[in-house]
Amino acid sequence: MRPKPYADAPRLPDGEPLQPGSLVRTPAARVELEIGPGRGWFMVERLQEAADVAMVGLEIRRKWAALVDERLRRRGFGDRARAFAEDAKLALPRLAAASLSAVYVHFPDPWWKKRHHKRLLVTEPLVREVARVLRPGGELFLQTDVADRSRAYARIIGAVPAFRPWGDRPQVDENPYGARSPRERRALADGLPVYRLRYRRASP
Predict the structure, then answer these.
(1) What is the 3-state secondary structure (H, E, C) of 103-134?
(2) Residue 109 catalytic?
(3) What distance in Å separates the CA atoms of residue 130 and residue 139, rounded to the nearest whole number?
């Protein structure tokens, strides 16, 4: 029997709690996580922008986890960034509390029919796990190009007391991280609005 394609995609090591900083070779002042990095270009640009940052990506598709991990290595970021073939809903509970400086979620949940709602990524249980793994002062940044989803996400995150809007309100006009996902670039090129939510993890 032939092995499944990309069966050797990187996976998180056994055991828990996992320290995200131990998943990369070079210690960094900040360890950040992208949920669903896709083709990995946000990770690449973020690492280029911030030399003091290490990054971990959790990508549910084995193919893209393998390709992004290799892309990071070939571009010289293999010592401070990794991509793993993992479902974030299952992987986040394995990460140590207060171990991340930022979590990014770009354009999630391309599911429109009611019967697909059980597949949605951004739910209150996931947001509570994000709050647990962020250190006080850590950031949650979420983008979508669907207005209704933006409002739904704001309600979900607003129901988790650990999060506070970055400013007077969670919506921000600009992406402050010096990196863009391909979907964000495409939306901007097509003149579509991008709805951005930015939160800070409050102290316990």
Answers:
(1) EEEECCCCCCCHHHHHHCCCCHHHHHHHHHHE
(2) yes
(3) 10
Low-confidence spans in the chain with pLDDT less than 50: 112-113, 115-116
In order of 44, 121, 153, the CA distances from 136 in angstroms are 26, 23, 21
> Whole-model pTM?
0.93
User: What confidence score (pLDDT) does residue 115 get?
Assistant: 44
- Of the residues 69, 109, 145, 190, which is catalytic? 109
Domains for the chain: give ranges and CATH numbers. Answer: 20-201 (3.40.50.150)
Half-sphere exposure of 151 (CA within 13 A, CB side): 2
Alpha-carbon span 128 to 199, nearest angstrom: 13
The single-letter DSSP state of residue 18 is B
Per-residue pLDDT at 98 = 97
